[in-house]
Specification:
Layout lengths: L1 H30 L7 H14 L4 H13 L4 H16 L3 H14 L6 H13 L10 H16 L4 H30 L3 H14 L6 H15 L2 H15 L3 H12 L11 H10 L5
Membrane topology: Lipid-anchor
Pfam family, one: YfiO
Organism: Paracoccus contaminans
Length: 281
């Protein structure tokens, strides 16, 4: 029995040594100098790593080496845009922006410049996740997306940028709504109104406008400012009568014996006049 166990141990040890040797050879292959390879061979190796490897960042090494070894070749230009793509795929957004910007600076008239601009915008856009985060990245995404739309209006990148621009714009309105609800819940009605006003005046094309108007009704009623509440309800009824937010606002007004009709001469009254004239939306 002792002999049998010893044989098993020796066999296991031998397998371990063999696997370790293979691993070292693979590691050596991955770190071998690339000077003896052509630019195309290195590029294809980078493509292979990008498509089949588990870590997209590993492909960057190959594309970067093409820049170093063949700096003035067409392969270096192609490798640079692939660096930006690989970094973005690896969620290394700062590095992706850096590579994309270098491509734009070095090859501003190249046919891939549109894609470089799009990757630059996408690297900001893909960092927009939770409404509660700082909105600096959202503003940068909007600026970069707008540049794609204006520079390359007839490309697929512009069409995609338009959709993402609308979503990022909606995201900013969502941030204002979140803060407004926070103030409203705590009875800070003036601060809440200021946030909802921003949505109505600056983000009126977003999906948050109906709720912003309903919240204005709620906040103004809480302050006893019935004229403003009625006017907010009138705007809501004029543009979003089928919205559940209108029914909520209507019920609040009716509970006070009020109607959703414009009253007074507040900032909301001016908005209402623009709505009637068809200039608001």
């Amino acid at each position: 029995m002792a002999v049998s166990i010893s044989r098993q141990v020796l066999m296991a040890a031998a397998v371990s040594v063999l696997l370790a040797g293979c691993g070292n050879r693979d590691a050596g292959a991955n770190n071998q100098p690339l000077d003896s390879f052509t630019a195309e061979e290195i590029y294809k190796r980078g493509e292979y790593e990008l498509e089949n490897g588990k870590r997209p960042k590993d492909a960057v090494r190959y594309f970067a080496e093409i820049e170093r070894l063949y700096p003035y070749s067409d392969w270096a230009k192609r490798a640079l845009i692939m660096q930006a793509y690989a970094y973005h795929k690896a969620r290394k957004y700062d590095d992706a922006r850096g590579a994309a910007q270098r491509f734009i600076d070095n090859y501003p008239s190249d046919e891939d410049a549109a894609y470089a601009h799009y990757l630059l915008a996408l690297s900001y856009y893909d960092q927009i996740d939770e409404v509660g985060r700082d909105q600096g990245l959202t503003f940068q995404a909007l600026q970069s997306l707008r540049e794609v739309i204006e520079r390359y209006p007839n490309t697929e990148y512009a069409r995609s940028a338009v959709l993402k621009f609308d979503l990022a714009f909606d995201h900013l309105a969502g941030k204002e709504m979140e803060i407004g609800r926070y103030y409203l819940k705590r009875g800070n009605y003036t601060a809440a109104i200021n946030r909802f006003r921003v949505v109505v005046e600056e983000y009126q094309t977003t999906t948050h406008t109906p709720e912003a108007l309903m919240r204005l009704v709620e906040a103004y009623l809480a302050l006893g400012l019935t004229s403003e509440a009625q006017t907010a309800g009138a705007i809501l009824g004029h543009n979003f009568r089928s919205s559940p937010f209108y029914q909520d606002a209507y019920n609040q007004l009716r509970g006070r014996g009020l109607t959703a009709t414009p009253q007074g001469n507040s900032w909301l009254t001016k908005v209402y006049r623009q709505v009637i004239q068809g200039k608001w939306l």
